[in-house]
Amino acid sequence: MSQTVARAIDIVAFVSRRHRTLGEIADHLGVHKSTALRILQTLEDGGFVRRVPDHRYAMGFQLIAYGQLALDQVEARALARPILQELSDRSGHTVHFAELAGDRVVYVDKIDGRGSVAMGSRIGLPAILHTAGVAKAILAHQPDRARWLSICDYERFTPTTLTGPEELSAELDRVRERGWAEDDGEHEDFLNCVALPVYDARGQVTHSLSVTALKVVAPLAELRAHLDEYRTAAHRISRALGWGGDDHGRR
What we know:
Layout: H1 3-17, H2 22-29, H3 33-45, E1 49-52, E2 56-59, H4 61-72, H5 75-91, E3 94-101, E4 104-111, H6 133-139, H7 145-151, H8 165-178, E5 181-184, E6 191-199, E7 205-214, H9 220-225, H10 227-240
Antiparallel strand pairs: 1-2, 3-4, 3-7, 5-6, 6-7
Organism: Amycolatopsis deserti
Protein name: IclR family transcriptional regulator
Keywords: DNA-binding, Transcription, Transcription regulation
């Protein structure tokens, strides 16, 4: 990959998190502002970034169009969507669907619950590996755990965040043993979730779903009380993907 293309990709990822100034982008790339500006102008012409009123740069609207086209091609998302919608309608909570994609776990669908509040998850963005329930539900079943543990940055967001490979590995052991994962306010302290693995036709965990709620509305104990319902939804999606097992989430 050419250096210019690599920098362009880096810029798009950098501004997708929040609006950035030219100086911030140049510092992130380790280049002069003039170099960063030339790449930004090309990206802006293509609709991949845009300038916002505070003289910062944000993700461009063309990416949304391309992202929707890509999502439309994800068969698993299409198969899972009606089941996810049913689950959200019944529970009233936000439901996420995530996919293993290279070295990331990416949100490929999200259905907001009733009275939903703003949260950091967005369709097309990667889940934070050491905090997100959807990520832990997938990672617990990967054979190359050591590699995944080395990829995590273990940034502390809240008092319950797991901040080291030993902690995360122990948590993944628990996830695999009990068949489900959770996020106990580990990224956003006012939210919690439970998550379940989704198997493909090979019996491998390639996707996961989670049910997320405000702690004041449904604390973890309440979400756990509905695990059988959530497990049934994950099982239905796994069967739609060709999985032939019958003891979902318990290997």
